[in-house]
Amino acid sequence: MINYFAPEEFKCGCGCGRMAVNPKLVEKLNKAREFYDGPIHINSGYRCPEWNQQVGGKPDSAHLYGMATDLKCQNSRDRFSLINALLQAGFNRIGIATSFIHCDMDGTKPSGVIWLY
Fold first, then answer.
1. I need a labelling partner for 84 at 20 to 30 A (CA). Which of 22, 70, 90, 113 fits?
2. Thinking of the domain 9-116, which architecture would CATH place it in?
3. Is the backbone of residue 85 left (phi > 0), alpha (psi -120 to 50) or beta?
4. DSSP assignment of the chain, as one string?
């Protein structure tokens, strides 16, 4: 399988340089990219606790554990295609916002859910 994502794409957005990403998350994202017709851009990967709080993340966010990403998505057609690709890749926790799609694989939270931000 091709690896479509560079490790630095998952680094914390605050500039601290910290990064923790679950290899299974990357594997699923690579599968999703195989199904999606176009590039996938990561807006947010790992978040350190300070950055997570600053951006309004939940205290138990999967981003804190390297098990979540927010993927850039800004129109309905791409949103449909990206969600379809994520489902085909096995993601079962998806959040939909105006400018991004959140996907995670946090086994401590309910699965088989799609929510709106």
1. 22
2. 2-Layer Sandwich (3.30)
3. alpha
4. ------GGGGS-TTSS------HHHHHHHHHHHHHSSS---EEE----HHHHHHTT--TT-GGGGT-EEEEE--SHHHHHHHHHHHHHTT--EEEE-SSEEEEE--TTS-SSEEEE-
Question: Encoding tokens for residue 105?
Answer: 């694989």
Ordered by start, the domain boundaries in the chain are 9-116
What's the pLDDT band for 1 if we cut at 50, 70, 90?
low
pTM score, whole prediction: 0.95
| Residue 30 and residue 5 in contact, taking contact as beta carbons nearer than 8 Å | yes
- Other residues' Cβ atoms within 10 Å of the Cβ of residue 34: 13
Give the pair of three-digit tokens for residue 12: 């914390």
Task: Please name which of 58, 66, 77, 70 lies closest in space to residue 106, comparing C-alpha atoms.
Answer: 66
Q: How far apart are CA 57 and CA 63, in angstroms?
A: 8
